[in-house]
Amino acid sequence: MNVDGQPVVPDPFAYQSAIEADSPRLRKPRIALMGEFSAGKSTLANLLVEADRLPVQVTATQLPPIWISYGRGQAHRVDLDGKTIPVSLARIADVPLAETAYVRLFQDAQILSSCDIIDMPGVSDPNMPPAVWQRILPMADGILWCTHATQAWRQSESAIWSTLAPAIQRRSLLLLTRIDKILGDNDRQRIIRRLRHETDGLFAESCLPISLTRARAGRSSAPDWTSSGAEALLAAIDRLIAAISKDLGAEELPTPTPALPAGPAAPAILPRRIRSEAGFLGTTPRPPHMPDDPRIATFRAMARSNRG
Questions:
Q1: Does residue 6 sit within a domain?
Q2: Which domain holds residue 177?
Q3: Which pLDDT value is given to residue 274?
Q4: What are phi and psi of 254, to 5 degrees?
Q5: Which member of 76, 82, 91, 159 has the lowest number of beta carbons within 10 Å of its beta carbon?
Q6: How far is Cα of residue 86 from the mean position of the Cα atoms in its chain?
């Protein structure tokens, strides 16, 4: 009770205080992975952060948003009051959904030196209240929306997308996942043409076909990596991070280096680091394996240097 004898209503946005209070010019872009249940979001997150840290399949629907940042800190959850509670990755499925705003994980992955990744639960899930992802969505600067190729851009997806602000729509990509399930090239092209027509003007780029399972298996083969759609996707993510970083105050960067020629070594699976010097040094210590210049290091240049 307060001093007037009225019940105290918890602040529904108290959890935001647990997020770094950096100004937009001093933080990394935050990219949310979204889509309907079983559209490949967690598989995409695992591909991008180079680790199998996120549950997929059934257990994924039981989880709140998973916020992944650079580092090696203790995994924890942030409750609706803004309190942090350590969690075990082995028991992450036990995180209480109704009491948790998001789970914070840390990973030493190159992409996380350019941005944070937020793996959202599936939208339109009857077992998942929309508030679970809606309360975190305002924290995102851009979205990678995954739509399953066999049921691409369902009416339920279109309806949810229409509720989002045009500003974040223009900072988003539409991914056509599980494209390998569509066997005929004519059928694949027909789906791509339809999606591009139906989503014209709704995304920064639409649509990007990708076989995530083939991309993960193709890390050791440049031709397989490219044919999976991973090379084109990473180039698009590269452009997206550049655009968002510029909006957040980062310096404008030079044109990315050309794609690697085919060879036995797989390209590193990351878009370039795009940070202003002040912004990057003001948030996260520079990883020791990064070049001395903290402003730019493209994943293609890094992969080339690793090849000798």
A1: no
A2: 21-43+120-306
A3: 30
A4: -70, 170
A5: 91
A6: 23
